[in-house]
Design a protein that fits this description.
Blueprint lengths: L11 E3 L6 E3 L3 E3 L6 E3 H5 L22
Antiparallel strand pairs: 1-2, 3-4
The protein binds zinc ion.
Length: 65
Amino acid sequence: MFDAYGNPSGEQLDCIACGQTYERPDVTADPEGRGAVCSLCLTTDRTGLLVLPAQQAAPRPAEAH
Ligand SMILES: [Zn+2]
């Protein structure tokens, strides 16, 4: 999914929700690994099934006093 320089490729992927084809930068991976979901479907998703789970915030290092 990345080009030789480590940048996201312009590869085209089909959104699993709407079936439209988008370039790689406009889609994100489905949380259950079923494929790609476009940003439009993510923002208009009413079921919440496409939304990525919240990530645990990294624990902060204890502040030195
Ligand atoms: Zn879509």
